[in-house]
Amino acid sequence: MKSCAKFSPSEVKFYDQNILMDYPHWNEEGFFANRKSRKIGKISPMIFSEGGVKFGVCFGYEAHFDVFWRYFMQKNVGCVLVPCASTFESGGRWRELLKMRAFTNSLYVIRANRIGEAKFGESEFKFYGESFVVTPSGEIVNELKNEEGVLMCEVDADEIAAARGLWKFRKNLVGRGLL
After folding, report:
1. DSSP characters over 110-142
2. Nearest to 174 by CA among 80, 74, 75
3. Alpha-carbon distances of 125 from 27, 42, 94, 104, 121, rounded to whole Å
4. Tens digit of pLDDT per residue, the chain (179 long)?
C-alpha cells in the first residue's frame, strides 16, 4: 500500500493514496496494492484538526486533480500537506502548481519532497528535495532547497480567514450552488 500515517497518543490513522501513477517509468498502479481499497467515483483524503485549523493530506500526484482541491474546499480545510517523491527536475512545475492551489483555495500548502538517490530495477532516480511552505496568498515563505533539514512554519488561522474574506473564492461557489 502507498499510505501516509498520522500518529497521536490515542490513535493511528492511515490514508491510502487514491490515484496512483501508471506511467511505464513509474508504475505505482502495478506496484502498490491501493487499487483494492479504492472506491470508483469516490476519494477519501485524510482530514484532521490541530490548533483550530483543519489539515488535509494529498499525495503529490493527487495535487494535479481538481477533485481533491474541491473536496478540501467543501470541508473547509486551511492547510494541505503534500508528501512527494518528485524527480526529473520538475521543481519549477511543482512550485507554480502549489502556489496556484494555495492562492485559489485560500489555504496553506506544505510540500515535503524526498531527497537523495535510489535505484529501482535498472532505473536510477535523483530526488531533489525543494520542500516548501506556501501561504494562502500564494507566496513561498520557507523552503529547504536541495538540502535535508527541518522545515518550520506557523499556520495562522487569521491569515486563512483574511485571504478567504478578501478573495471570496469559496463564498462565490457556495452562493452559486457550485460547492
Report:
1. EEEE-EEEEEETTEEEEEE---EEE-TTS-EEE
2. 74
3. 14, 32, 17, 32, 11
4. 677 788 989 999 888 777 665 666 665 665 556 655 555 667 889 999 999 999 999 988 899 999 999 999 999 999 999 988 666 676 678 889 999 999 999 999 999 877 777 777 777 777 666 888 999 999 999 888 888 888 889 999 999 999 999 999 988 888 888 88
Total of domains in the chain: 1
The domain that holds 134 is classified in CATH as 3.60.110.10
Domain assignment of residue 159, given as a range? 3-175
pTM comes to 0.84
Q: Identify residue 33 by its one-letter amino acid code.
A: A
Q: How many CA atoms lie within 13 A of 162 on its CB side?
A: 9
Four-point Cα dihedral 20, 112, 63, 122, nearest 10: -30
Q: All 3 cell numbers of residue 29?
A: 498502479
